[in-house]
Amino acid sequence: MSSVLVAEGLFVSWQPGDWVLRDINFSLAAGEVVGIIGSSGCGKSTLCLALAGIIPRQSPGQVEGKIFLEGRDLAQFSLPQIASCLGIVFQDPETQLFLPRVRNELAFGPENLCLPREEIAARIQRIAEEMGCRELLAANPNELSGGQQQLIALAAVLALEPKVLILDEVTAQLDPRTCQRLQAIVLDLRQRGVAVLMAEHNLQMLACADRILVLREGRMEEAAASDLDGEEGLSRVYGGGRV
Questions:
Q1: Count of CB atoms within 10 A of residue 108's CB?
Q2: Which fold would CATH assign to domain 78-192?
Q3: Residue range 1-77, CATH number
Q4: Domain map of the chain by residue range?
Q5: I want to staple 38 with a disulfide (CB 3.0 to 4.6 A). Which of 42, 122, 167, 198 is the partner?
Q6: Tens digits of per-residue pLDDT, 74-107?
């Protein structure tokens, strides 16, 4: 399968010269699910923000190296162009939900792509059905539970029909049942050919991943079996922190 997202010699910093990520090289193919693990503060979220083009366009930071999205240099894309083919969901859904009704949230992205009204309505109904949130379309997102808000944030991104989906610690506030539901959604996306990158502490969520990468001291490497089994391996990955 062809790679839809590629990083080559990627360096990222929040302060000039103080590199959080160093010489990151990896690729993500269509229909592939890749997990990223590492201790808190190792740079997982920073990597997600850089790959989504948010650093340096919306968040201050420095990026060196190359990121390619569908074969094109990400530097050539505007944020709206990136959003049309790459979606990102954050750990805190409240940072992504700002409209008065769930229906408005699902319509926001397609409306900004200037899609026909009929197409927007069809997408809303299809996504709401697939995500099991049809009964919430008239609800105020601020009045929903954390798990419901996270599913709505994901639904709003999926309404754009991205070819690449980045999930940044999205299970942090979810109960086990909602995590299982999210895992089923990821598996369905993989079958449709969507590339999924998941930064996660929840190793059970990563059971659906085709491969797992580890961030250590700003560098990326393939996870060894010993990294994922036993206290010693997990301690190396998470630095003694909570999994």
A1: 17
A2: Rossmann fold (3.40.50)
A3: 3.40.50.300
A4: 1-77, 78-192
A5: 42
A6: 999 999 999 999 999 999 999 999 999 999 999 9
